[in-house]
Amino acid sequence: MTPPRPDRSSSGTTFARVGLLLLTVTVQWGFTAAGTTAAPIQEDDPGASGPAGSSDGNGTGVSESLRPFVRQARAALLEKKHAGFGALVYHVRAIGVRHDAITPCLHYIDDRRRGTIDRGNTEEGPVWTAYEPRGQRMEIKFTAPGHHATTRQVEFRAGHVDVWDIVLEPVTLESGARVTGSVWLEDDDDPAGITVKASYVLPESKTVTDADGRFSFLGLPSGLLHVRATKEGYVGLSASFEAQKRSEFVCPLRGFRQRTAAVRWAYQPAGSRRFSGDKLEEGASVLSGGAHHGMSFAPRLDAADGEGDFGIVQTEDQLVLSCFGPAQDSPGVLQLARTCFDDITEAPQDGYATGRIPLKTGDVFILRCSDGKHYAKMEVLAILDGIAPGEVAAMLMRSECILPGWTPDDKHLTSLAVIDFDTGKGVAPGTGRALSDLARGVVADTGRFLLLERDSIIHVLGEEDFMASVKCDDTRCVVNYGAKLRAQKIMHGRISRTESWYVLTLKLIDVGTGTVEAIQTEKVRGKVGQLVELVEPKTCALLRSALSGEPRAQ
């Protein structure tokens, strides 16, 4: 039998939070769950009478094998170090199960453990003796494979020895719980043949859904049952509940397509000591829809104690960013309306909050680590569903411009033409050509569009009309040239100069409807060369905004 241990599960049920494992039925004072009676200690036995007697008031005794342990506990309670303490002697058996397969999981109801637990051995297995101060309450759940769970509570009384002699009840078809349910899959009308498993302790029960997605289990043990189904590309499909003997439960399982987020981030290395002036590390990562509590999405972005400050989980059809820790200097999240700075050292230092935040394409977050000194910036490039994280990672290797709505087998590409960007006074015409070429590269790398090459555009329009298309200053003009090219969408840009500022404006226009689907505008102070670093992310943001149906960005 394994030693008692707290359960650190994060399940939402009461037993999982307090650290209990389940299983079976019990016996106290010599009466077994199967109805047999163990040999009692006689009333005149010194181990069962006096101030440290083993009786709990019901007049029963304890089994012969526990007599030495009761005497030992009684003697220990007379020692000075146990003044005001009580004791619990307990032993548990399960027919046909090895002692080390029986698990007692204990929980201190009102307080943490303040006493000690000793272990002894008999031919029937180990015996445990717990010493705790008066008023301490303890609950133990006993589990074993193929047996029902048993939960017992005790309140320690000064100078008193309580005794549990427990025999766990085997699970039978008659005594076991019955579980029925069905599997529902998002956007999938074929729930047949899905493997469903039910378990609390081994062995695990398995079944397969029928043509309508239904399943059932008979003869399951009482206790905290976990029922789960598995289907590639789906998350969820699990439920946990407390089962009772001879009871029936209905357990619907809902599965949602796995969501994956492609993000771009910049963060301070863990070894840095100051918020300002540190060398930043940048890159792109993939956040999958699994339960990633305690881990970080960027290397070494973690707390001082080595545990993650942030976690990513999928809740139904949403990816959620979780921030741990309620204290003032604990990790925090600040959501921004847009990327308002390029250097992480310019991040705001106030307004951070904890909690759970659903992720959306285009979101920008500032993340503060629990040491209150290290920060990161994370921009959500796209939320994709039905795509394995490995596939998204491969896309990031090719391009950081990941767009929503893409699927691996998508063969229907939208035709798109990028017209050379117009240049205003004080900006060389060659700058417009260079920046439009960078934009074309972003469009091509996404794999989402059938890009019309610049030479093909000139061939169809002719040199004169091509130059006129560059100078279009209204939507109708751009749409006319797009129609001649038979393009479904057309991108047009303009670079202008105002005093010491350069302004980049990009538009994506639907040729069929004549509507502007998205606008991106950015300005920089200084040299026009700074626009080179902006045109690629702004082109990606333009495409992403149009495909996600978001409001036009200004």
Secondary structure elements and pairings:
Layout: H1 14-18, H2 67-77, E1 85-94, E2 103-108, E3 116-122, E4 125-133, E5 137-143, E6 150-155, E7 161-168, E8 177-185, E9 195-199, E10 205-208, E11 214-220, E12 223-229, E13 234-236, E14 238-243, E15 248-250, E16 253-257, E17 259-267, E18 281-287, E19 310-315, E20 318-323, E21 332-336, E22 355-358, E23 364-368, E24 375-385, H3 389-398, E25 414-418, E26 422-423, H4 429-446, E27 449-452, H5 454-470, H6 475-485, E28 489-498, E29 501-510, E30 515-525, H7 532-548
With helices defined by DSSP (H or I, 4 residues minimum), what is the helix count?
7
Low-confidence stretches: 1-60, 291-306
Biggest sheet descriptor: 6 strands, mixed
Q: What is the percent of helical residues?
A: 10-25%
Mean pLDDT: 76
Radius of gyration: 34 Å
Number of domains: 4
Structural commentary:
With 554 residues, the protein is an alpha+beta fold. The protein folds into 4 domains: 155 residues, no CATH class; 81 residues, Carboxypeptidase-like, regulatory domain (Immunoglobulin-like, Sandwich), CATH 2.60.40.1120; 140 residues, Tumour Suppressor Smad4 (Sandwich), CATH 2.60.200; 135 residues, Rossmann fold, CATH 3.40.50.10070. Strands 25, 26, 27, 28, 29 and 30 form a 6-stranded mixed sheet that branches. Strands 8, 11, 13, 15 and 16 form a 5-stranded mixed sheet that branches. A 5-stranded antiparallel sheet has the order 18-17-24-23-21. It starts with 13 loop residues before the first helix and ends in a 6-residue tail after the last helix.
